[in-house]
Amino acid sequence: MILKNAKIVLENNIIIGWLEIENNIIKSINEGSTDLDGINLNENWILPGFIDCHVHGGYGVDFETGSLESYKLFSNKVVREGITSYVQGSVTNSLESNLMFMSEFKKFMNLNYKDGAKCLGIHLEGPFISPDKKGAHELSLLEKPNIQTLQKLIEASGNNIKIVTYAPDLQDGSFTKYMLENNIIPSVGHTNISFSDCERDYEIGFRHITHLFNGMSGVSQYEPGLAMFSLYKDDILCEVISDGIHINPDTLKFIYKVKGPNSICIITDAMNAKGLDDGEYKLGNLEVIKKGMKVSLKSSGVLAGAGATYDHNVRTFYSAIDNLSMTNLIKMTSINIAKQLNIFDKTGSIEVNKIADLVILDQNLNVKKTIVEGKILYESK
Ligand SMILES: [Zn+2]
Question: Residues 220, 192: contact at Cβ < 8 Å?
Answer without folding.
Answer: no
